[in-house]
Amino acid sequence: MVYVGIPKGQANQEEEVLKTIQDGDSDELTIKRFTESREKPGALWHIYAAKDTEKIREFLKKVAEEQGQENPVDHDPIHDQSWYLDRSLRKRLHQEYGVQGWAIVQFLGDVVFIPAGAPHQVHNLYSCIKVAEDFVSPEHVKHCFWLTQEFRYLSHTHTNHEDKLQVKNVIYHAVKDAVGILRANESSLSRP
């Protein structure tokens, strides 16, 4: 979080942000950090375990059907980013599916890492600027590749249809570099 713009002269804004943080299921230390320090909170994140993705997807489809909305085959309730799980929906998700996420308040200067495939949502508390960078760690290549395959089934007009992570290119260049290093050191590897 590189910038948080807090408007001047809006006394009740701070109270609204505190209420949002509390309703967002933030822990006591985070609430204390907001109320007792001069730090600027920019965003409230809810991050869920990647293993719970299918349960969340099923839950969102169920809620959409209850509200009379369609669930087209070439759309995905998670990738569409058309839902925000408020307190009541998060509570219902926990009660009906056993899924509970983590609430994180990102203050000015904080970094939030989101594991590969972890469903997440963000609620900006003030005007803020965040710098985001996608990366593929060796431990999560398999999951990133699975996500890339999942994106392929979205409609061609969907914003997530393209392979943003370029997983196949990452794998290709990693293998190419490894082979290059092995060839460069081939003579020293063959010696006893």
From TrEMBL:
Record-listed E.C. numbers: 1.14.11.65
Gene Ontology molecular functions: chromatin DNA binding; histone H3K9me/H3K9me2 demethylase activity; metal ion binding; methyltransferase activity; transcription coregulator activity
Required co-factors: Fe(2+)
Record's cofactor remark: Binds 1 Fe(2+) ion per subunit.
Signal sequence coordinates: none
Gene3D superfamilies per the UniProt record, alphabetical: Cupin (2.60.120.650)
Main location: cytoplasm
GO cellular component, one term: histone deacetylase complex
InterPro entries: JmjC_dom, LSDs-like
Protein location: Cytoplasm; Nucleus
SMART domains given in the database record: JmjC (SM00558)
Keywords tagged on the record: Cytoplasm, Iron, Metal-binding, Methyltransferase, Nucleus, Transferase
Domain JmjC: 1-152
Domain of life: Eukaryota
Catalyses which reaction(s): N(6),N(6)-dimethyl-L-lysyl(9)-[histone H3] + 2 2-oxoglutarate + 2 O2 = L-lysyl(9)-[histone H3] + 2 formaldehyde + 2 succinate + 2 CO2
Role according to the record: Histone demethylase that specifically demethylates 'Lys-9' of histone H3, thereby playing a central role in histone code.
PANTHER family in the record: JMJC DOMAIN-CONTAINING HISTONE DEMETHYLATION PROTEIN, LYSINE-SPECIFIC DEMETHYLASE 3A
Family named by the database record: Belongs to the JHDM2 histone demethylase family.
Domain topic, free-text comment: The JmjC domain and the C6-type zinc-finger are required for the demethylation activity.
Protein name: Lysine-specific demethylase
Native source species: Thinocorus orbignyianus
Lineage: Eukaryota, Metazoa, Chordata, Craniata, Vertebrata
